[in-house]
Structure formats: C-alpha cells, structure tokens
Specification:
Shape: globular
Radius of gyration: 20 Å
Protein name: Sugar MFS transporter
Mean pLDDT: 82
Largest sheet: none
Main location: membrane
Organism: Arsukibacterium indicum
Low-confidence stretches: 2-19, 421-429
Oligomer: single chain
Helix content: over 70%
Structural class: mainly alpha
Keywords: Cell inner membrane, Cell membrane, Membrane, Sugar transport, Transmembrane, Transmembrane helix, Transport
Membrane topology: Multi-pass membrane protein
C-alpha cells in the first residue's frame, strides 16, 4: 500500500527479552511481505476483470473500493477484537479470514458474477485489516520507543518486497507471462484467476498454523474501549487531523497510480506493450518504494522527517506533471519513479501525526486507520476522470494529493499546544 494500515492500539509497554523481540520481529516480517504481495495482486486483477466483464474504468475501480473500504468498515471492530484476544491471536484470526477470502475466488469464478469477486475481495481485505491492526502495533512495542518509527519503516520495506515480487507471480499465472499474446476481450476465462488465489489460501492457512504454534511475547490485551476513535481530545489536535487527511490522500494516490499502471503502460502512445508485459513493470513501481524504505529507515534517524516527507512529495509532483505532459518512455518511467518517492510517506505521516499524543495515541491511531478509506474513494474518482478525460490526464488527481502531502511535511505536521492541562503536546524531535 503497497499500503499498510495503521495500528488502532499503540503505545503499549512491552515485556520480554531482546532475544524474543528479534525472533518475533523476524516472524512478523513474513506477514508484512504477505499482505504486500496480496494487495499488489489487485493491480493485475483490475485489467483482468476489466476484460473479463467488459468494465469501464470506474466499474473496474470498484475492486479497490471494496478492498480498501473493508479497512474503513472493519478497522474499529478489528481493534476491539485484538484488544480482547491479543496480538498473536489477532494475527492468527486475520490469516484465517484472509484465507477464506482467497477461497471465495473459486465459486466467484465458477459463477461468473462480478459482485462475487468483489465480495471475495472484501472478505480477504477484512482478514488483512485484522492482521495489520495486530501486527503494526506489535512491531511498534517490540523494542525501544525511540526507534519504533525506524522499525516500522524497515518491516514495511518487506511489505514492499512483497509488492515487488507479486507482479511476476500474477503476470505469469493470470496473463501467461511476459511473452504471452495480448488477451482478446471476450476470450478471457474465469478459471485463470482460481489457481493464484488457491495458492494464496493455502499459504495463509499454513502461516496461521505456524503463528499459532510459535512462542511469541504475549501482548495486546487491554480495554477495548480505548481502541475506539470516537470523540475526545485527539480529535482536537490539528497535526493529527491534517495527518489523517494526509493518510487519506497518500493511500488514494498510491493505490490509484498502481491501479492504472497496466492499462497506462499498454497504451500505444506510452509503452505499447501487452498487459502481461506491462504487469511486470508494476515491480519497478513498488520496487522503488522498497529501496526507498530501506534508505529512509537510515536517513530519517539523522534528517528531520517532515523535510524528508516534503522533499519526496515535491519530487512526486514533478514526476506526475512530466508523465501527464509527455509520452513514450519518458511518460512511462516518470510514473514508475513515483514509487521511489512513495517509499517513506506512509510511516512518516503516521509517526508525525501521532507525535506527542501520549495517552491519546491509541485513539489517534484509530482515527488514522479510518483514513485508509482514501484507497477506496480516490481511485474510484480517478476512474471517473479516466472515463471522461482519459487515463493520462486522470493522473492530475494523485498530483494534487502529493501537493497536500508536501504542505503537511513543511507545515501541517507541527503540533500546537492545547489548553487541556493533562494534554501537553510537544514538538517532535
């Protein structure tokens, strides 16, 4: 998110040895890889289902609407569930539900009903939401608080590794690989999509069994009411509210660009390649994010996070302007390089938005988690623009999103001291 939702229960004190922490973090890294892999498959599923059901761009974007809409609907109940059963049990539950969503692709393909595919995606995303609500704060508390942002950025680099590998897997199984001829609308079959999701279902169930067996630090159980992002002081914090909007537009921009990559690169005036070949280039987009996150995990220990965020956002604006105004290889690579700019944005916006919230950190994280719905709404709007003015000009929407993110990094992320005597916000280091 390629996009990773935010924990709804953060700021817990950790217990256990550093050895246990390292082992637990290693195990959790596999989860970040898996959900990055699954989320990226949507970008290949969109052109496949678009041809299968002869959809408009707007109708095809309902795939992302259902997938990321689940984050908005399920995140709060997921936070309450994880607060009751703990992080480890939450991870196992999320893996099993995600596996069930993958299995639903089999009857969806057999019935040849687009709505069934959307239902399967919603169930799959619901499981991933529970998984991430448990795993993200788990990473945050397994170690020193001062390095939580760096740890989260590092583990999300493996999320990007999953998004980098997924295009090759999906293109091979769904479109037949790099050298396969372009599928003709009307000849695409439903059965092609069954095998990839059966493999994923088996992998998720296997991971659930492994995590149920692993001895991990017991954390995460707390009062479920603390996870509810409803009312209270957190809503009064300017930097948090602007950060929530930042998460909204960032996820919307990243998902929107990824959703249109295959269609855009296969256009004659841009890449002029088959959809199978274009699918492989998604790896460049998310691979850039992976490389950038490894670099960012080191750089942001020395450089002000807000300035790094603004710099990356301005670079993304310039690259999108170039892809809109040009054609051919220049337009193609300008868009793909936006992935490198995306690298540190999500964890940086998250960290800046909850800076200084103290006892309201859990509530603030819940508010940010709701903002993930940008991945459902903005790609749908971009689909409407693509149907009315063309795919290339529709990239004006993510360009505007990155302009806002640049503002947030330079100014909007600065906390303001509030009146409440028990809630003093300090400037982040």
């Amino acid at each position: 998110m390629a996009t990773t939702p935010i924990p709804v229960a953060a700021g817990l004190s950790a217990g256990g040895s550093q050895g246990n922490y390292r082992f637990a973090l290693t195990a959790l890294t596999s989860l970040f890889f898996m959900w990055g892999f699954i989320t990226c498959l949507n970008d290949i599923l969109i052109p496949y289902l678009k041809m299968l059901f002869d959809l408009s761009y707007t109708q095809a974007m309902l795939i992302q609407f259902c997938f990321f809409g689940a984050y908005f609907i399920v995140s709060v109940p997921a936070g309450m569930l994880v607060s009751k059963i703990g992080y480890k049990s939450g991870i196992v539950t999320g893996l099993l539900i995600a596996g069930a969503g993958c299995l639903l692709f089999v009857p969806a393909a057999a019935m040849h009903v687009y709505a069934m595919f959307l239902l399967a995606l919603f169930v799959l995303a619901s499981g991933i939401t529970i998984l991430q609500v448990a795993a993200n704060p788990y990473v945050s508390v397994l170690g020193q608080p001062e390095t939580a942002s760096s740890r989260l950025t590092m583990t999300q680099a493996f999320n990007s590794l999953g998004t980098t590998v997924a295009p090759f897997f999906g293109a091979w199984l769904i479109f037949g690989g790099l050298d396969a001829p372009e599928p003709v609308p009307g000849t695409v079959t439903e059965s092609t999509v069954q095998l990839p999701y059966l493999i994923l279902a088996a992998s998720l169930v296997l991971l659930a069994i492994i995590f149920a067996w692993l001895k991990l630090p017991a954390m995460g159980k707390k009062d479920p009411a603390e996870a509810l992002p409803l009312g209270g002081e957190a809503w009064k914090q300017r930097h948090l509210m602007l950060g929530a909007l930042g998460i909204f537009v960032y996820v919307g921009a990243e998902v929107g660009i990824g959703s249109f990559l295959v269609s855009y690169l296969s256009m004659p005036e841009i890449g002029g390649m088959s959809k199978g070949a274009a699918s492989h280039y998604i790896a460049w987009y998310f691979g850039g994010a992976m490389v950038g996150r490894f670099i960012g995990a080191v750089v942001m220990q020395k450089v002000n996070a807000g300035k790094v965020l603004a710099f990356n956002a301005i670079c993304a604006v310039l690259l999108l302007a170039l892809t809109i105004l040009s054609s051919g290889k220049l337009a193609m690579w300008s868009l793909l390089l936006v992935g490198l700019c995306n690298s540190i944005m999500f964890p940086t916006i998250f960290s800046l938005a909850i800076a200084g919230l103290k006892q309201y950190t859990s509530q603030g994280s819940g508010i940010l988690c709701l903002a993930i719905v940008g991945g459902a709404i903005l790609p749908l709007v971009q689909g409407l623009l693509a149907d009315s003015m063309g795919v290339q000009l529709a990239f004006i929407l993510p360009l505007l999103c990155y302009i806002y993110i640049a503002f947030y990094g330079l100014n909007g992320c600065k906390p303001r001291t509030v009146v409440s005597p028990d809630f003093a916000v300090k400037e982040p280091l």
